[in-house]
Amino acid sequence: MSACVPTRAADPTRPAQVHQPHSPPPTPPRRFRVAGADLSASIAVFLIALPLSLGIALATGAPLQAGLVAAAAGGLVVGRLGGSPLQVSGPAAGLTLVTAELIQRYGWRATCAITVFAGIAQLGLGCLRVARAALAVSPAIVHGMLAGIGVTIAVAQLHIVLGGTPQSSVLDNLVALPDQVARTHPAALSMSVLTLALLFAWPRLPGRAGQVLRKVPAALIAVAGATLAASVAGLKLPRVELPSWSSHALAGLPEGPVLGVVAAVLTVTLVCSVQSLLGAVAVDKLVSGRPELQGRVGRSRLDRELLGQGAANVVSGALGGLPVAGVAVRSSANVQAGAVSRNSTILHGVFVVIAALLMVPILELIPLASLAALVMAVGIQMVSLLHIRTVTRHREVLVYAVTTLGVVFLGVLEGVALGVSVAVGVALHRLGRTRITHEEREGVHHVHVRGQLTFLAVPRLSRALHLVPRGADAVVRLDGSFMDHAAYESLQDWQSTHVAQGGTVDLGGRSGTRIAEPENSGHCRCRPWTPWRNHQCDAAAEPGSPPSDAPSDGSDGQEEKESGETRPNGHQLARGISAFQRNTAPLVRDELARLAREGQRPSQLFLTCADSRLVTSMITSSGPGDLFVVRNVGNLVPPPGEESGDDSVAAAIEYAVDVLKVRSITVCGHSGCGAMQALLASEPGGALTPLKRWLRHGRPSLDRMAADDRPWARIAGRAPADAVEQLCLSNVVQQLEHLRAHESVARALREGALELQGMYFHVGEAQAYLLADVDGTELFDHVGAFDHAGVAEEPRHPA
């Protein structure tokens, strides 16, 4: 393969750049450019973060400046290093209870050190790439934990709202509440009521004027309104006190039992990590609802997000700040305000630093009762009715309730441990709860299995199956989603024996679809995935007879034997069709009949290479009618007007977009592409063969790879293996640009009815990568990075 890559003509005004052939060109220095949308979004987030940071610091009993330090660290550090571009981090209400307990037990400086250790633990977890394991925690446990923390916050802040001081536990606060009500401070209560009134009324302002005013965050209006009212009325109330930064307390080593400190570090690590990762998933869902961000904002990279959160906690704790985690309120505000990159998060951190240094006199006018009312409202909102309905629908309300009560009355770590125990118990109960019934109707014996079929149910399954007499007709229905190996073997052994004794078995799933059918020993017993492996599966040879695929005259077979090779012959196609008719056709006949009646309605045009190793239905887990597939050499999309008589691809694009109304188009390249190798090895001149005429549509991809004024397309986590792989990646990006030039595609994109997606499939690794634009670089990331275990999420694309 030639190592020559076409380059541009030398420009005497540009300095010479020397790099090895096929190595990435030097990356030009990037300038920090801020889009107008990011600037406006950062201001909106800052106006929300400022009062909330002070309020959360107040609720924990920490110095109020600690909330500002955490907000700045979350904005600057996580904003730059985190893996979720639009998630905003800072002091979170979900950490309030944990931090308050640590301050009471170890003191403030020791709590800062625990925050640093928790950040180091997060860095270690991020390096071990275990971020998705944290998402395996049941959502019912997470929502229950947040609800318990919300109840604790609300009850504690109610005392400050009434003008008093909260106690150390929920029970003590509840016991002291009647006495606090009797000693209510009217001025504090009035400011709290005003804050709550503004907080809930502001988002509901009617009319066009209200629509404009609602752009100002309600939290800012509520606190600013109460502050202004208290100042004008001259009320004597406890207010924010921000001591001089010169006396700000920094981290100090904790004193106490080592096991207690380790438990505290693990608790902060767990709560920060889980809340941040779930927040990243939620932000991805918000981004997917904004079509204009598709292709501009990549999906969250959870391991990188964990690293960013760990670094922020190290910085925040070392500088005397609260623990940092992803915050749902600020993140959703960031997305809704129109942010398009991580610059909005970084700028919000800059604004927090400026406010902490220059706005101290203004901040010290804020009544503590107003901040308490704001945080109390946040705590109440953490008990989400939507989450309660969701866990009830999934029959996990017991897990939710136990976790909530455990957090309220025992603590966060104890409550989560109780929730995990109950969740495991519920899962085991569901796994072992299987109903097996047998009945005879009109001479047919029906065995119905409801629930998961595991080894625990094998004895009952065996008893029910042996109630079926020899030679009888039997129908076995499996109404469950799981069957382990022991149950499978038991069922198959009985089925084979019953059929051998002259009976019949109709074995099917919940919808009545047949699952398996016993075959005689002469049939192929290969696994369902083996037919595409180009294997040779022959029927069992009868004694004294040649194999089923041996030629009748013996000539070809002799040649194969002498050459030492086993080659597919003319009977292979017939055998494959026969296997389809026997094994697969009964399973897909109903679906194909429906498609024949209704016509095709694919949701995606999938344009890929003609390479025989790319099985589109396999790598996209799709079936008949799902994809409209166009294949050609090199997955090329000729630009309009350059087809030179070959309108095949353009016709397919027009038909898919205008007639079939597909919602997305995917251009899929692959490793080891022969067309890309031919492009790299091509020399000017020579006979213009059909292949060369076709490959000229790939020359813009060569030019793209050779350009010095743009970064190369990359694969996340590693450099391209060689020039062929780099050209394959560049070709996908270039063909997407060709797609946009087609009139039907451009029109659909303008109308928001279509999205374009790039994909790269590494054949040897069986690994798919999706294209995303990350900070101006075309990055192909693992498809696994776009999924999040433990969280129900619609796929980004039908494929």
Automatic annotation (TrEMBL):
One of its GO terms (biological process) is transmembrane transport. GO terms for cellular component: membrane. It is a multi-pass membrane protein. Binds 1 zinc ion per subunit. Zn(2+) binds at C609, D611, H670, C673. It comes from the Bacteria. One of its GO terms (molecular function) is carbonate dehydratase activity. Catalyzes the reversible hydration of carbon dioxide to form bicarbonate. This is Transporter. It comes from Streptomyces triticiradicis.
